[in-house]
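Inputs:
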Amino acid sequence: MSPQRRAAIKRVTVFLILLLPLILMMANAMLNRLGPDPAKAVVDNTGLWAFRILLLCLAMTPLRIITGHSIWISYRRMLGLYALFYACLHLSAYAILLLGGDLAQLSKELVKRPYIVVGFSAWLLMIPLGVTSTKRWQKRLGKKWLHLHKAVYVTAVLGMLHFIWLKKLGIWAVWPYALILGALLILRLPVVKSVVTSTRTKKAT
Ligand code: HEM
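Outputs:
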């Protein structure tokens, strides 16, 4: 099998795996297995997957640095777009299922609840990243593209803040995510990056 074909099969597999949370949620909804508050379960589930996939997306560059394989980078765009997709589902579920499609109420909630403002800002920031994620935009923006796409870290920090605000720091469920995000941010520091790269090249020789 040609390397291109193998890479294409891997990409399709990742694509289908990322669709699984939505398929499972829909199956559970049809079987009435979303718990006592199905609307809230859909909002929570889609928010959680948007955040998990965003963290996975951020993990691709550190994985390339650690392993020395650039294959990870080929999944980055798909992961970013999937994170945006789940974030859009999350916002839609919140607006339609919890607020009954009342947009005036949504704007009231935006003013009233700071955690909604933070979540909304994270989502807004994801949009230009999704739109400019194509090769065409990458060429068009040149170096500016790299600077713009650093905003993905701001999105992740805002997503984390939104999660912490909701769950309160005392809830253990938040901590693994905060630790993963912290580690991913530390791995992006130039000094840490160069230590990891030189350790890997020393091991290879
Ligand atoms: C677009 C604007 C957004 C709005 C209006 C919004 C609103 C909400 C609401 C109402 C909840 C559930 C609150 C509750 O449990 O009572 C929630 C949960 C959550 N949201 Fe958002 N959110 C937004 C964007 C985001 C984004 C962009 C992310 C991630 C990148 C995110 C991640 C989460 C997470 C992780 C949870 C907690 C899930 C859980 O409890 O298991 N949200 N959000």
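Remarks. The pocket of protoporphyrin IX containing FE is lined by residues 40, 43-44, 47-48, 50-51, 54, 87, 90-91, 94, 116, 119-120, 122-123, 159, 162-163, 166 (CB under 6 Å). Residues 3-204 form one domain.
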